[in-house]
Amino acid sequence: MSNKNLLIFVYMLALVFSIGACSNNDSSPNRLNTNLNDPQIKTVEKYENNIDLMKNAAQQGDVVAMSLLGDKYLKGDGVEKDIKKGIAWLTNAADKGNSLAQQSLGYTYLFESTIQNDSKAFFWFKKSAEQGDGISQLELANMYANGSGVVKDLKLASQWLKKANDNGLDTPSALKYLQK
């Protein structure tokens, strides 16, 4: 599987887990959750097939639109593929605290061969993980366990795995392995 396809697969998998792992009572304004009345879910639905509306909203400062537009540019989905524009939009949303944009930047820096940078991937996963994103917590655990972008530290890997588990991701077997 090519790096591009792997990035898309992992990102989509992470997005599915992120939506499922978020609780319905999460009050963070930058997190998607399973509450279908959540404004971000409505925003995603509104922009899903309308690039012009998405671009306009992103230019007006809508962080969800920025994040979605960044992903569109990374993939070349509905727009001409442009990694620099994709990263710029994602960074803008991530700097405003959007955890999914932070997570997407983490995966982009982890898997996009033209800009691969484990330290930057770690930075963005950590930002998202600190907001309680279980997928990013799992990625941090993996990076600590393998020393990718950070000094190898099995104790911190175990702590982040526990946080991911506490956020609804099934990680007990990995926790047992790290605690040996």
Automatic annotation (TrEMBL):
Keyword Nucleus in record: no
Signal peptide: 1-23
Alphabetical list of SUPFAM superfamilies matching this protein: HCP-like
Keywords: Signal
Transmembrane segments: none
UniProt superkingdom: Bacteria
SMART domains, A to Z: SEL1
Cited PANTHER family: ERAD-ASSOCIATED E3 UBIQUITIN-PROTEIN LIGASE COMPONENT HRD3, SEL-1-LIKE PROTEIN
Protein name, as recorded: Tetratricopeptide repeat protein
